[in-house]
Design a protein that fits this description.
Elements: E1 10-18, E2 28-29, E3 55-62, E4 66-73, H1 78-88, E5 114-115
Parallel strand pairs: 2-5
Antiparallel strand pairs: 1-4, 3-4
Length: about 120
Amino acid sequence: MSGRGEAGALRFAGYAAIFDRVDRGGDVVRPGAFGAVTAAQVPLLWQHRPGAPIGRIEMAREDRRGLRVIGRVSRASAAGREAAAMLAAARIAGAGTGGGESGHAPDAAAGAGDRGGGA
């Protein structure tokens, strides 16, 4: 996590998915699952709620470890302010790609079953 940029937004970096780890829901994300994903394709939602966007993802790409993201949390909404406060206090236990909780503090793997990118 790092400082602020646009009008009080809080910038962060971490993993939205970690490869080859079983998450709390029993799911495993495999390398290649995200292919050539772009930041525009990855929403930044609070508690996986589609109606609660809290900012934007600036960069998303697969590396050896998982899906690495850099984003900004906007403080324009109550949900954004809550998320920014929790990030600043290191109280976020994980992030995810939607569908489950991972437990990887801002490094997360969540999903629906085995997400593979080819065998």
